[in-house]
Each structure stands twice: as C-alpha cells, then as structure tokens.
Amino acid sequence: MATEQHQMCSERRVCFVLGSPRHVADEQKAALKKAAGVSGGKDECQVRLKGREHYYRMGTEIGMLGGYRFQGQVTAGDGLDKKGKMEAGYNNLMEKKKQQCKVGREEEGSSSNRPELAASLLALRDTRIEEPLLYLCDNQSLLKTVNRWIGEGGKATLVGAPDADILAAAIEIIRKKIAAGTATFLVKVKSHRREPANEGADILMDKAISDPKVGREWY
Fold it and tell me: What per-residue confidence (pLDDT) applies to 65?
C-alpha cells in the first residue's frame, strides 16, 4: 500500500491508494480532490455493492449484520430534539424512498425519544405489511420502549405512557406484520460510522426543522 499526498482545501490530507501512486490516473486524482473539497458536513448516501466497495461495505457494521443482503426492506431512521423543536427522518436503502417530518406537541415538553419513535413509525408506515423489515437506529431507548410490547409477560398499558399517540400506531403495524407472518427487526447500530442508511436519515432529520415545506405530525 503506497500513499500520495496532496494539498487539498488548504489542509494537508493523505490518500491511500492500491499499488504505486504513479499508476493513479489524473482523472482519479481530480475526483479525489473534488470529493475532499465538498462542504456540507455529510458523506454521500450511496451504496455501491460492486467492485472494491462491495468488500468494504460487507465489512462494515451493517454489512456484518447482513443488512446489505437482507431479503426485505432495509431502512434507517433518526430523530432529534433541537432547542425544543423535534424532527424525524427515515431512509429506505432498497427502494430509495425517504420521508421526514416535524414532530408535534413540543409545547408539552420535548425529548429525543419522541422523534426517534416517530422516525420508526415513518418506516413502518411506508413498508408493506407483507414485506420483511430491517430498521436500523442508533437509539437504544427506542428498542427498550418497543420491547415491552413484544412476547409474553405482564400486561402493558398505554395509560400514562409517554408518546402513546405514536407508540400505539407503531404497535398496531407491528401486530399486523406478526399476524401476517412477516419478520420485523429493530437493530441498534453505532452512530457516526458513515453508514449510508444512517447518514441519509440524519440528513433528512436535520433539514426537517428549517424546511417550511416539511409538515408536522402528531400534534
């Protein structure tokens, strides 16, 4: 493995290339410089499962979990409480679908759990009942909230439950998927790992508050 160093964007960066740097085509060098100069704070949200990138993706957390080979819809969602304003977004890797929204009832008090739950409901609503669903999130509280309603145990009640309006809708969709014999997986993944599914959801969530065209739900 050899390295070639370039002065890019007024910062010193190191680019690792396979083989000798002398064999790197000029157009490839230009593409690298262009990519390094992009400002926006987020990586591109594209998955290419061919060539060398295939081996890289298979070695990531989602790849090792079997996400890129999942026989169903692979989705990811994210929610945020930003200065009392709640926003949610979800991203579907398989069908290139996405959705975002503002989350209402902030006047009753905002929290990060409510928009995280809202993001999962966006994914559930946008997936057909008969389709298996893999939902990736970086919030463990969401999994704990939903887990109370899965399997046997004491009777759970929505009376007094936080965010019962969103939770009830999510539980009903999961119930229908169970009745149809369809698998639903909610998986906790690490955040800030540059995974396209999570990055895409994060971008949608981030833009929801500032975009006047994005509507509000659950108010």
Answer: 85
Instruction: Give the residue numbers spanning the domain of 10.
Output: 2-39
> Residue 93 is which amino acid?
L
In this structure, what token pair is assigned to residue 42? 């987020």
> Domains in the chain: how many in total?
2
Q: Are 93 and 189 within one domain?
A: yes
As a whole number of Å, the end-to-end CA separation of the chain is 55
Same domain, 69 and 127: yes
Q: Please give the C-alpha separations between residue 96 and each of 45, 99, 123, 138, 141, in angstroms, as whole numbers.
A: 10, 10, 12, 20, 27
- More confident site: 99 or 158: 99
| Domain-embedded: residue 50 | no
Q: How many other C-beta atoms are found inside a 10 Å radius of the C-beta of residue 34?
A: 10
Please classify residue 194 by burial: count the beta carbons closer than 10 Å to its beta carbon, then call 0-12 exposed, 13-18 middle and 19+ buried.
Answer: exposed
Same domain for 32 and 97, yes or no, is no
How do residues 53-77 score in pLDDT, each as one tens digit? 888 888 888 888 888 889 999 998 9
Q: How far apart are CA 141 and CA 114, in angstroms?
A: 10
